[in-house]
Design a protein that fits this description.
Number of helices: 8
Order of helices and strands: EHEHEHEHEHEEEEHHHEE
Shape: elongated
Helix content: 40-55%
Strand order of the largest sheet: 2-1-3-4-5
Number of domains: 2
Length: 231
């Protein structure tokens, strides 16, 4: 049974989320404290984090950053902040989804379930595939990525983007295509949010700025994988 850690300072909302998530068959841990959330994440290793950004003790952004240092847990950010810049900021911090208050508990549960499916199953494939003379190796069976021999930890959304691009290397995928391939539905119409995920992905797979980009931007069109599959 997947475990969801809910971090929300408003008790009414926290208990509402617990009720709906448990009804969906999920185990729920909850707290209204950012500091306690970090401790819980360290001791229980939850499968997903539902995180309010406005917490009374530690800002949600700091909580997310601290937890990601020891646990690459998928994260759904929950907040009253609704501007596009706030959404982009949350995604840049590694969030896999973003829901603003007020929200539909049923929709939130569906989003949680979608993230858990992506995280648990990823994208199946016939063993590791190598690109660019071994520069990039994707093992879909194990859900592992290596760049120049070093393992890279990706969030479910980053993984989905990379695997989608790698299906047809060199093909340009629009933001709309990537959003729908990765999430399975149009994400509130904000196609530009994919830019934040691609930025995070690049930060992880393109650590050496002296090397050519692995994921290329095609101005006005979208993104593509520069590398070609090895024979």
């Amino acid at each position: 049974m997947p475990t969801v850690l809910v971090v929300e300072d408003e008790e009414r909302i926290r208990e509402l989320l617990r009720s709906y998530l448990e009804r969906a068959g999920l185990e729920v841990l909850s707290t209204g404290s950012g500091a306690h959330a970090i401790q819980l994440a360290r001791s229980t290793a939850p499968d997903l984090l539902v995180l309010d950004l406005r917490l009374p003790d530690v800002p949600g952004e700091v909580v997310a950053s601290e937890i990601r240092q020891f646990l690459p847990v998928p994260t759904l950010m929950l907040t009253a902040k609704s501007s596009e810049q706030d959404r982009i900021r949350g995604l840049e911090l590694g969030a896999d989804d973003y829901v603003t208050k007020p929200f539909s508990p049923r929709e939130l549960v569906l989003r949680v379930e979608a993230i858990l499916r992506r995280s648990a199953h990823g994208v199946t494939g016939p063993g590791p595939v190598s690109y660019g003379d071994g520069e990039l190796v994707i093992d879909a069976d194990r859900r592992e990525v290596q760049v120049r021999g070093e393992s890279v930890e990706l969030t479910p959304t980053e993984w989905g983007i990379l695997v989608s691009l790698a299906r047809v290397p060199g093909r340009v995928y629009s933001r709309y295509e990537l959003i729908n391939k990765v999430r399975g539905f149009e994400f509130e119409g904000y196609e530009r949010t994919i830019d934040s995920h691609v930025k995070n992905l690049r930060r992880k797979v393109e650590r050496d700025s002296r090397q050519p980009a692995i994921v290329e931007t095609v101005l006005g069109a979208g993104y593509r994988l520069r590398l070609t599959p090895d024979a």
